[in-house]
Amino acid sequence: MGQMSLIQASSIMVGNNIQIPLITSEQAARFSRTSRNSALLQEPRAWLFTQLSLSARSFAMETSGSAMAPEFEEGDWIIVDPMVEPEPGDFVVARYGTKDTAILRKYRPRGLDASHKMLFELVPLNDDHPCIRSHIDSVEIIGTVAEHRKFRKKKPDCAGGNSSGDTVFWSRPKRT
Asked: Which stretches of sequence are listed as region Disordered (predicted)?
């Protein structure tokens, strides 16, 4: 109730649920695990609810592209917790190179370098996309995926349905 401050714009409790802001991949790319930048969460596209135990800095975003197909499809929603350190096989959101959008990939640790920093790969599920390697590429993990929401996609069929779910009736050809 009342106006939201910048601090309240991040995840908040609503009953037994946590309210999570749904942000764009561009907003997620500007998100940092190390600084308090809740201004990025100030104008979410929508709010999602979950019963998971997440940090107040958690956010949701919509997936895009084909790099994580078939498990993640265009338009799926993921909830990301920046405070959770990824474990082998986890899915993560990362900032890659100079791109201004965040990417989703599978996390694969590769051991420690000479300064005891963890080297890792970000692996696509679709083999048509390249692996990203932390010791070669400019990459920073933003957060670990805590939840994946997949939506049923209705596809048009030859019986006359369409992708919006409306029924379309086709006239039968006349017999001659």
From this structure: 154-176
